[in-house]
Design brief:
β2 and β3 form a beta hairpin. α3 crosses α4, α5 crosses α6 and α6 packs across α7. This protein has a domain of about 110 residues: Arc Repressor Mutant, subunit A. About 60% of the residues lie in helices and about 10% in strands. A four-stranded mixed β-sheet has the order 1-3-2-4, covered by helices on one side. By secondary structure, it is an alpha+beta fold. The chain contains eight helices and four strands.
Amino acid sequence: MTKAELYRQVDDLRQRLGGRMPKTYAGLLSLVDYAIPHLRVVGHPMDSRKVAGLLLRGEESVILLNTSFTPVSLRFTLAHELIHFFLHPEERQLVCARQNSPLEWQANEGAAELLVPRHSFLPTMENICSNFWQEKDRIAAAAIRFGVSEQVIRYRIKSLRQYYSASTRYAAISAAREQAQFAGLVEGRQRASMPVAGRQSL
């Protein structure tokens, strides 16, 4: 499955769940309880932090979440398991334990797209970049805005850069923006170097 195909399936899932995702773990949990009656989510603290979540499929499927993690992490793990639930129906049992496999990549990338949609992430980051100068402040602001960890935001930036770099349209837009920024910089320097009316040298 390509990233574009995955994103289309996540778009369909988002619409099925009502559109915009709740920004908190409790909110997403309530949405799942309401929208997917045959899926039960159970939280339980585990001694090991190697396992963040588990999906067990049956007549009543169950997602088990390790509540030793923070609510922000739990929200992402729940989204991760939802991708497994909807996109991998042939799998009877799936464990979220940082496994490096195509299914885990789909679940991670899909969860990121579900919680940080590309269509809203790009304009949001443009607005954030105009208000924050330091990259760490931009990352922190975006994480708060979308209700995810800063690690997810960094991952999202890297993933979308790869996704859009293949698009000629995106490349053209990026080049135009860089040219406009450079033009503005040059103009600003020229204005700074112009003599001020009425100024006299001493």
